[in-house]
Design goal:
single chain; alpha/beta
Length: about 350
């Protein structure tokens, strides 16, 4: 790679995830996450591997920051372990967890490395999963509280934030295919999780804006390039694109929930709709009646900052959407409920350009 040919304003750095590197899963008041449970369940990971020790970053963070300084890195994207801040996923803040990230941020700044904080990289506190997880709307409200607490603690020094890392993985690998934590296999729960992750993103933006108004806010989406295999496969590609991309891009930038995310109504041999179809229709009605923005719930954070956001100029973006390390300005957003025109626009016969 010819770095001289790259734009001068690109910030080069490295990225990690808390559960993948920190270890110390039962130290200083940290609670259990869905990945602790998942990785300790027989057959879920190769050779039973887990993150109990991982790279031992929790104890070796000073050495790690020193290596970053020696490498001349401009930025370090790290994720904050929600169970380390709120062991139960709500309520009490664990000061020792906050102190760890406080020391890390100060050391990065001293080393000349810009801290880039990700609020959520898949490690949902296990008590929240026990209460229903991301398929339950209240999890998004709890995420707003968590974002407020972390933003209050670190927002004076962290200028760049990522709300969610690859929410597609959280929703569809965690709740549909079951290959990621928490390992559930319910398509309807996966769709509900996607909706509530969208809500959580908007809620976190509102919370962070209120405590760190100068910050740059973003989300990391793992987008998919979808191409039809043959001339007759356009509809199949459109449906994959809807579930792979537009299920998040639509609400975040539209807003609109792509109609093609929802399966066609199916009837049993007796002519009566199945329970699954009934649940899917109910969920679809719930989603169509709401908007994936911070102003649609009764959570105090959203009814405060979110209400103010309703007067936002149509030209003001909600944040920045990033794919891995690539960032681009978000499109104008609206906080009104998605209209039929919005839905048709995203679920039309052709895949939106780009």
């Amino acid at each position: 790679m010819n770095l001289d040919a790259m734009p001068a304003d690109i910030l080069w750095g490295v990225a990690t995830a808390a559960y993948q590197i920190e270890g110390a899963v039962d130290e200083d008041g940290r609670g259990s996450s869905i990945w602790d449970t998942f990785s300790h369940t027989a057959g879920r990971t190769r050779a039973g591997d887990n993150g109990d020790i991982a790279d031992d970053h929790y104890h070796r963070w000073q050495q790690d920051v020193g290596i970053m300084r020696e490498l001349g890195l401009g930025a370090y994207r790290f994720s904050i372990a929600w169970p380390r801040i709120q062991p139960s996923g709500s309520g009490r803040i664990e000061p020792r967890g906050v102190a760890f990230y406080d020391r890390l941020v100060d050391a990065l700044l001293t080393a000349g490395v810009a801290p880039v904080a990700t609020l959520y990289h898949w490690d949902l506190p296990q008590p929240l999963e026990d209460a229903g997880g991301w398929p339950v709307r209240d999890t998004a409200a709890r995420f707003a509280d968590y974002a407020d607490a972390v933003g209050t603690a670190l927002g004076d020094r962290v200028d760049t934030w990522i709300t969610l890392n690859e929410p597609w993985c959280s929703a569809f690998l965690g709740y549909a295919s079951g290959v990621h934590a928490p390992g559930r296999t319910s398509p309807s729960d996966a769709l509900a999780a996607a909706h509530h992750l969208n809500l959580a993103h908007g809620a976190a933006l509102a919370a962070l804006r209120s405590v760190a108004p100068q910050a740059r806010l973003s989300v990391a989406l793992n987008l998919h390039v979808v191409r039809p295999e043959g001339s007759g496969d356009d509809d199949a590609a459109r449906q994959v694109d809807a579930v792979g991309n537009r299920v998040f891009m639509g609400p975040m930038l539209g807003p609109a929930i792509p109609q093609t995310c929802w399966p066609t109504r199916r009837r049993s041999p007796t002519g009566h709709s199945s329970k699954m179809a009934t649940k899917q229709r109910s969920l679809r009605s719930s989603l169509a009646a709401s908007t994936c923005s911070a102003s649609t719930t009764t959570h105090p954070r959203w009814s405060g900052k979110g209400t103010a956001d309703r007067s936002r100029s149509a030209s003001e973006p909600m944040g920045t959407v990033s794919q891995k390390t690539r960032r681009s300005s978000a499109a104008p957003t609206s906080n009104s409920s998605p209209s039929p025109d919005h839905i048709r626009r995203w679920a039309g016969p052709s895949i939106p350009p780009g």
